[in-house]
Structure formats: C-alpha cells, structure tokens
## 1
Amino acid sequence: MLDVVNLQANYGAAPALWDVSLNVAKGELVCVVGPNGAGKSTLINVIAGLHRAKGGKLAFDGKDITQLPSHRFCSTGIAIVPEGRRLFTGMTVLENLELGSFLPHAKQQRSASLARVLSLFPALKQKLQSPAGSLSGGQQQMVAIGRAMMSRPQLLLLDEPSLGLAPAVVLDMFKAIRDINAQGTSVLLVEQNVAMAMEIARRAYVLEEGRIVADGLAKDLLERPEIQKAYLGIETH
Ligand SMILES: Nc1ncnc2c1ncn2[C@@H]1O[C@H](COP(=O)(O)OP(=O)(O)O)[C@@H](O)[C@H]1O
Ligand SMILES: [Mg+2]
C-alpha cells in the first residue's frame, strides 16, 4: 500500500534521510524506531507531504505521490498525527475532531466516524464541549488520533504518540492503536519507545542517523543482542 524507495530529505544543505526504503502492506502495523534526532519525524512528514523529498520515490496504492502538493495529501487516504499533537487548544474537542472530516467523503460519514472515535476513546465522551487545551496530555493525544481517524484514512501515520505520557496512559494509547489497526486501518508508527512499539507492531525498521540499519519481524528484532543493548537496556554476554 505504501512504498518508500531510496528516500532522501534535507534541511537546507544538511541531509536528514539517506536512501530510506520501507513499505507498509494493506492492513499492516509497522513501526520505525530510533533515537532522538534519527530522522523519524522527517520521514513521517515527507510521507505526509509536509516536507518535500530531495530524492527517491513515494508510492501509495500504486500511485506516485512524491510530487503531490501537501494540500492534496489528505484526499489520498493518508492521515498524520503529528509530533506534539498540534491541537487547536482554544477550540472544543468536538470542533477539533470535526476538523478531521472536512473533505466531502469524510463529512458524509461524520456521525459514524465520531461514534467510532468515541468507542475507541470513551474518555472523550464527557469532554466534547471542553476546550481541547483543558484536557490531560493523554486525552489530548486521543483527540489528535481521533481527529486523524475522522478523515477515514486507509493509512494512519503516528509520530511518537507516547511522548510525554505516563506509562499507564501509554499502555491505553497503544491498545487503541492496535484496535484501530485491527479494525482495518494500516498504521505506520514512529517511536522512541522501542519496547512498546515493537510489542504491537508486526514488522519494524530501525532508523539511526537518517539510515535504516535493521529491519524485520518485530519479534525477531527484539531477540538481536545489538537491539537489546542499544534500545532495551539489556546487556548480553
Ligand atoms: N526544521 C529543521 N531544520 C533543520 N534541521 C532539522 C529540522 N528538523 C529536524 N532537523 C534535523 O534533522 C535530523 C532529524 O530530525 P528529526 O526528523 O526531527 O528526528 P527524530 O524525529 O527522529 O527525533 C536531526 O539532526 C535534526 O536536528
Ligand atoms: Mg521526532
């Protein structure tokens, strides 16, 4: 469904991604893990059309989307939950959610989508009329994911949904992401929380300094000593 081939991205003259290739099949939950500064946000922003690729190719459902202008991306079936959530904090939760469904095909299904978001995140039911900025960090992340789901995406891109959240909240968040995937939406998740991300993903890629340095089934990667040492704090002798 998503094919990324030899993707390169720069900030000015400084390279941030070198020849990154990855794919997400229909229905898959794939994660990209790596340390701070590895290029995870750059990767997800290029896939979402928010940052222009310098080289390489992006294809979605067999269509070349590399040069698509960013305002056209939301109609392709890709939705992004950006790092730091980017909610309109002065607007209500309901208004934020409805912003996700402004395109005609999503607008038609707005009430069904809202019901689905509220079944994924029941805590939002009581908060629909509250300003988004008054919610806890975890609830704001639910709104950010909910807003993306309101656009009825085929592929959901998530940039560090666990960032800044308490461990118990992270657990709920990852469970909801797994439910979203189980209900048929393909997911590409980028995370620094390697242990949790690998737990829910089927396949994973490891990104370091702008390059993919390992990939495979998440359960296999978790058994590699170099991954355990670098990302899980496990020393093997
Ligand atoms: N707006 C920007 N301008 C210049 N350099 C940037 C910008 N955003 C990110 N970078 C650099 O690109 C690299 C990758 O950053 P980023 O994609 O944010 O990594 P991650 O999300 O994995 O933490 C880092 O070296 C970072 O300093
Ligand atoms: Mg980032």
Note: Residues 11, 16, 34, 36-42 surround adenosine-5'-diphosphate (ligand 1) (CB under 6 Å).
## 2
Amino acid sequence: MTSGTVYTAGWSLDDIPWDRFDRSKASPGMIAAVKAAALVEFNAPAYVSYLARVFEGAERSLADFKRWGDEEAQHGLALGRWAEMADPAWSFEQAFARFQTGYKPPHFTSEETVSVRGSRRGEMIARCVVESGTSSYYSAIREAADEPVLKEIAGRIAADEFRHYRLFFDTLHAQDEPELPFWRRLLVALGRINESDDDELAYAYYCATVGPDEEAANPYRRSEYARQSFACSGRIYRRHHIRKLVQMVAKAVGADPQGRITSWAAAFMWRLFQFRAGSTLASAPNG
Ligand SMILES: [Fe+2]
Ligand SMILES: [Fe+2]
C-alpha cells in the first residue's frame, strides 16, 4: 500500500463511500478493465466447487476456501456496481450471465478429484500465481485510478488479494504430500502464467465490452480479445507492480524473491508487457 491506508479483512459493500463517485474521473479504458475484472471475480464460487473436490476431507482448508470465494464474489459485486455507475447502459447481471454460460473450463465440469496441476501442492502454487497477479493488478488500478470510489475499492480488494496469497502460500506448506522438485514447481507456475492467454480473461473482456446486440457483428475470437484485454490491463500496470508480481511468484516456487534471477525475470516480464501491450504503455518513472 502506498498511501498508508490499511484495509482490514471483512469489509462489506456498505463500507464503500458510493456517494463520492465522480463520473467525470472515470476513463473509458479503466471502465472496460473494471467491467472485465468484475466478471472474473464474480465467477470465483465455481472455483470453490472445484477446490472442494480437490481438497475433500480437509475441513479447515475447505472453510478457508469458502471464505475466499465469498470475498472474491464480493470483489465482483463492488466492481460491477462501480462499472454500472460509470456506464449506466451496462448491466453487470446480463454480462455475467453471458460470461458464465460461455466460460466453462473442463475442470469446472468434471468429477475429477485430482488437481489439474497434478497435486494439492501444485494447485496451491497455481493459486499463489493468480493472487500474485490480482494483488499487483488492483494495486496498479488503485494507483492509476483518478476516480475516488474506484481508488478505495481497488485498495480494499488489493489488501484482500495479498491475504489470499498468504492463505494459499500457508496451505501449500501445510500439505503432507512430498515436496515437489523445483523444476516441477516452476513448471506449474509458468503453466498458470501462460494461461493468462486462455479464454478466461479474453472472454470476460469480450462479454464486458461487446454488448449482446453487437455479438453478430463482433463475434468472439480468443486471440483478438486476449490482445485487447492485455492491452487494456497493460496500460494500468507500472514496472514496480510487475516486479512485485514476479517476486511473489518466485517466493511461491521457493526461489529467492530478492535474487538476481528474480530481478532478471521481472525485467524480462516488464519488457514482455510493454511489447505485448503495444507502444501505449507509459514508461515507469519509479521502476
Ligand atoms: Fe479478487
Ligand atoms: Fe483473490
């Protein structure tokens, strides 16, 4: 947190100062980013069902995951409400219904009880990667947003996402499964990072920004909407957010977050972001 405000867990929508909303400070790019994020967040309960299969019998973890899913869903509600205030023609409910219908990864619908990452430890590493991404992303939104209500929402969500990382990190190390070799941990993390090109973010961006009446003229194409989604979020990140993201992933796989290889990886990742998001990225004065 850069502003010194510490947001504790357990907040509700009533804690958001909605009456301070200032539409003139909500930019189109930020509105699109928030709409897409709202859809992904609100879909978390589907992931809780999957985790409940993978962690069957681990009652304490299941209770933690249920609370996690509730917090993610609340993130979706807060972001969705903000997006509807910023764009009154947009319906969160309608966009989410389309997203939920069209986005059903195989592990959500199967009865498989083994994680798609191969083990519970692998699953927790993948969750740490996701929370590294979300905590960095909402920190970036908090810093980039001019609109005061969004700034507060993003600050509260970012604080939750750092706590989620801690939850999955602690659950990872509480497993009585044998430790995975380093190469295997790295592979799981890289595999999860690579999935940011899959349908979840691209299709959320599509449902968020292309209305149902525009679908025929603008059919969904993963590569195109993955590119647009990446360009949209890429404009929000700054170099220090990417560095933090890479450091958190390094810690999750058991590498040194302050080590030289992590620094190289962070520099490489930042270059990749700049390249993929196009020339619209601002340079990072505080990198
Ligand atoms: Fe979240
Ligand atoms: Fe989270």
Note: Residues 41, 72, 75, 134, 157, 161 surround fe (ii) ion (ligand 1) (CB under 6 Å).
## 3
Amino acid sequence: MKLEKLFRRAVEIGMKADVREKAYFDKYFKKQKEKKKKLDGWHKDIFDDERTWNPFPDCRIINGSGNEDIKTLMVGIDIETPEVLLADRLREKGQKIDALFIHHPEGRALADLEKVMPLQIDILALHGIPVNHSEADLKPRMDRIWRSIHADNLFRTERAAELLGIPAFCCHTITDNLVWEFIEKTICKKEHDDLSSIIDALMKIPEYAYYAKKGNPPIIVNGSGGNRPGKIVATEFTGGTNGPEEQLEAQSRAGVGTILSMHVTEKTLDAAKQHHVNMIQCSHMASDAIGINLLLDKLEKEEKKLKTIDVSGFVRIKRS
Ligand SMILES: [Fe+2]
Ligand SMILES: [Fe+2]
C-alpha cells in the first residue's frame, strides 16, 4: 500500500473510533475550507491544508511524498533521532524498513498537539459533564501546552528522517481513540465488584500482561483493592495529553467513581484524593501499544503483507 493511502485509511479508522459523530467532522471540514477561502497574505500562506480532510492535528506524514510503497514499518511509541539512526543502521544491515510509524507526535504533529485537546470535552460530556464547564476548565491548560511546546526544538526527528531518506508519519489521537474505545467496551461497561477485579480484567489483556511481566503492571494510585468502583470511565486515554485537574472535581460531581488513566499527574492525583475518585494508572506504554495494535490489525486486512519492526516501547500483538 502507498504511504498516502495507508495514512488516509488510518485517519478514517481514527474518526470511526472517535466519540464525535460523522456530522461533527463534516462540519469541521466545511468550516476549514470556508476559513481558507477568506484568508489572505501570510495567513493564507501558513494555512494547513491537511485540516480540510484530517481532523487530527497530531497525526500526519512528517517525511515522504506519500507515494512510497509500504510493507515493513518500524513502529515505536517515541521515535526520535536515535531511533531514526537505528532504522538507518538496520537498513544498512539488510533489514527492510519502508517507513517509521511514530506514536507520540513529532514535527508539525507535535507543534499542533494542543489543537486535539477539545476532544476531551466530548469524552467528558459522554459521562454527564456540561460542555461549558469542561471548555472553561480546558482553555487555560491548552494555552499552557501551546506555550510550552512552542518553545521546543520541534523538527529534529523529521530532519533526521529527511537526511537519511526514511519516510515517517505520526498517528497519535487516531490510535488513542482506538484504545479508548476498546477500554470503554472491555472494561468500563462490565460489572466489577472492586478495584482488584478491574486490575484482574486488565491483566487479561495481553499488552498489560506483557508489560506486567517486565515490572510495569496496571496499578491503583488512589483507592484500595477492596474499594467499590462505582461508575468506571476511561476519560484519560485520548485527547492529546492530560486534562486539567479541575476536570477531576467535575467528574466526581457528575457521579464518576473510578477513572482509568494511561498516566496521572500529581495535581490530578491530589484532586482525586480530595474528591474521593478512585484512580487506576494502566501502563502508559502498554496502553499506547494496544491502540497501535488495533490500528495495525485493521490496516493488515488491506495490506496483507504488512510487517513491523517493534522498537521504543511497542510490542506487536495481533487480535483476530
Ligand atoms: Fe497515546
Ligand atoms: Fe502516550
């Protein structure tokens, strides 16, 4: 499959797993196209055409024309210059690598990370938190993320890939949507007597079992094993990065009992303690690996010969 086709397919899969409906995306693309028409001068020059068909600003091809044939992907959760060099070294030794599949965004996908965060508002709305509250809580956090990333050296990885002639693309919220949907369905919607039984259920998922054996199991970070879970949600699996700690109080008021998370900030943990919300920190890398595996399973249906070289925290586990 050509890189462009593979990436466009990934975007479609990400939209299908998204909490927002097709009508939302149609409206989003229409608004972007109308916005483009009205721009002039430098505003027009820097308009991102990608936004007229790809609603995930943290997902894009960061190196390559899109016309490259893809059969073998080097897949990593974090791929930076060291992994690009590793790819080049492996290619030198005869290993075929057609492109780099990067989870945590790099290049422009990283520059635009905060733009995916409003998705958190829709995830929270699903559990009864008013959109106006979430929006007001989220805005200052989005501004902080924007300013902090703005100062980063954003284009090192893409330049390394460019110099070494290795196509590369980022899929972040696309695969986080897939793992969010999967955890909602396989864990949150099921009955659990206590937090320990949630951990037991997580441990039946092969990526968590794999990471647990290596010393990185899912852990209860607030509450204890015997605690009743109440309403279980996976509100910290997708939406760019951690939300503000104010979201914790809002969820508690809306009746959330237990939050499953990939990673918990200290401020959020303090808020969880204050508002009596149980929190389970599922392994970050294992959780990201689940999302990537779910996407690869779908892509493999169309590109039967798709192979992966697993690096940087990723482990390929196929589901039939
Ligand atoms: Fe992720
Ligand atoms: Fe992650």
Note: The longest helix spans residues 131-150.
## 4
Amino acid sequence: MRPVIKSPWPQENGSPKSYKPHTKAKNDLEVNLGTYCSYCEIFSSDLEVEHVISKDQDPSLAHNWDNFLLACGRCNGSGNKSNKTVDLTTMHFPHRNNTFLSFLYREGGLVTVNPELNNISRANAENMLNLVGLDKYPGNSKYPNPNLNDSLWKHRRIAWELAMKYLPEYEGEGGNLSAEHIVDLAIQKGFFSVWHTVFANHQPVKELLISSFTGTDKNCFDPANHYQPVPRNPDNPDDPV
Ligand SMILES: [Zn+2]
C-alpha cells in the first residue's frame, strides 16, 4: 500500500476551503494523491472522497480535509471499509504509516502482512488488511464465502502479470524498454506496490515510480539503500511503521 503525504488543508480567499458537501474535495485530493485508491492502489476515474473516520463514527470530521483519502467503491463499500469503526492507533493508514512496509506483494497479486514486523506492527497491519479486504481472493480460507470474482484481486493480479511480462524486456540486453516506459505504464494502471515489488532489483524504476506517483511519501524509501522502505514513525517503539 503506497505511503502518501497529505498536503495541508487547501486555502481559498485566505481561509481553509469548505468541503460541504465532502464530494467537493475530490479534485483537490486527486491533485494531492493522484487518481488512485488509497487502499488497493487501482487507477480509477471513479474514486470516492473517503472518510478515514466515518461520518457515523464522528460527524464532526465529515467535512475535514485531514480526514479525507480517496477510495474505490470496492474498498469503501459494504463488506469492506464502509462505515466500520476505525482506531488510528491500532491500524496502519497510508497517510500516517509506511504502509509499503506493512505488506508484502507476491506472485498472483496476493497481499500478506510483512512477517518481519514486530508483534504490534503486524497486528496493526493486519487490521488494515481486514478493513479493506486486501487479501480477498479465491481460495483464502479466511473468508467462508469467498467471492470468486473479487475484482480488486483480479486487477492486482493482472498488474502483476503485466509487470512480469515487461521485466525481461527491461532487463534484456539492448533494453527494449526504459524505466520511463515501465513507469508510464504503471501510472496508467495503478498498483504502485506491485511494480515496486516486481522491479525490486532496479533502482532507476523504483526511483521513478516514487517520484512519478503523485503524493508518494519519498521519505518512506531510502535512496542510499536501494529504495528499501524505512519506518515512518521511528520514535514510536511499539509500532515504528
Ligand atoms: Zn480500492
């Protein structure tokens, strides 16, 4: 899950912009974060302004810029996040944590919690995974009635296959494809974490992915160490992620 930086509350005529209704924030959010679901990372022209803390949980945050992300209808829909209660201290969020560190992306577009995290960080990553159903795919016994057509998983799998298809063309002698080609494609497809994982051995691609996906928190990746993810909250010993 791509870690992002929320920009400060946009201003209008010298005061914080009004987001009543909250849907008015969509354009500003897309300028800040790109046209990607903040959770599943899909590129979409049909994103929703997503309340991190739902209107049911705290109506006072219903029009608050700092409480907004972008989400696809699937992640934000019933069965996934919807209006579930959220505790920011026990759940990793892409605007507060280095969520690229929280999860591992694997062949087939599968997502799992990073087993190398400490117990608390693993639990907090798991809570996010469950909130938006990032591990819903056919055959996962965790879900008693697995939806065999889970669209999120299917699109992520396709992105994985595409990245794997172009990897040898990037690596091959004579290099048919450049980092620019790869990232141009990734930007139109979404799934930052899939591309970043498949091109793990290629710093130029990773660097360009980080700088080209609008709103990515660059400080979450260490340029001196192959753009490996680094903890975003190092002063929190319980959960440095
Ligand atoms: Zn989504």
Note: Residues 11-229 form one domain.
